[in-house]
Amino acid sequence: MRYQISGKQIDIGEALQTHVKAELGEVVEKYAQRPTDAMVVFSRSAHENVCEATIHLSTGLTATAKGHAPEIYAAFEACRERLDKQLRRYKRRLRDHHNRRTAPVEFDGGSSYILAPTEEPEDSEATPLQPIVIAEMETKIPSITVGEAVMQLELGSQKMLVFRNEGHGGVNVVYRRDDGNIGWIDPRNSK
């Protein structure tokens, strides 16, 4: 498993990096046998230390957690406990997906744009609204099943996930509704 351990405007020592690798390796090995990489970022927020961890699994799932504490080791332990809880909660589902999937999840590239309107002139009826692109980034779109997408949405605490449906190859979206349920958009079924 590849580790990327860094600090935002703080120095992290070799002892902390060794501790993080040992503890995360133990947690991940207990619940998921095929992790690919882990990213851990330490930072400060006022008087607290913050630890944010993201673990990518070969099944396409991404588990994320965040921990806060006055001490940096305690912040990591809080983050590690949250990751442990997430992976333990989905252990059976992860094991089922692990057995069915023989190859790692494939990712397609996709562009993401943030659009903002230009300032409206005084005669707003004469000129139509024309947005401009103010930010652009690339993102990876996983090729997974709907069940894996829902699990990814729950593990990552995200509001929305765009994915390529393995069943038919089309682009789908799962999202968290305001009532707490999960919504699924499959443009292929809207015909």
TrEMBL record:
GO terms for molecular function: ribosomal small subunit binding. The keyword Transferase does not apply. GO terms for biological process: negative regulation of translational elongation. GO terms for cellular component: cytosolic small ribosomal subunit. Pfam families: Ribosom_S30AE_C, Ribosomal_S30AE. InterPro entries: HPF/YfiA_ribosome-assoc, HPF_long/plastid, RHF-like, RHF/RaiA, Ribosom_S30AE_C, Ribosom_S30AE_C_sf. It is found in: Cytoplasm. The keyword Disulfide bond does not apply. It comes from the Bacteria. Residues 73-100 form a coiled coil. PANTHER family: 30S RIBOSOMAL PROTEIN. Associates exclusively with 100S ribosomes, which are dimers of 70S ribosomes. Interacts with 100S ribosomes. Required for dimerization of active 70S ribosomes into 100S ribosomes in stationary phase; 100S ribosomes are translationally inactive and sometimes present during exponential growth. NCBIfam families: yfiA. HAMAP family: HPF. This is Ribosome hibernation promoting factor.
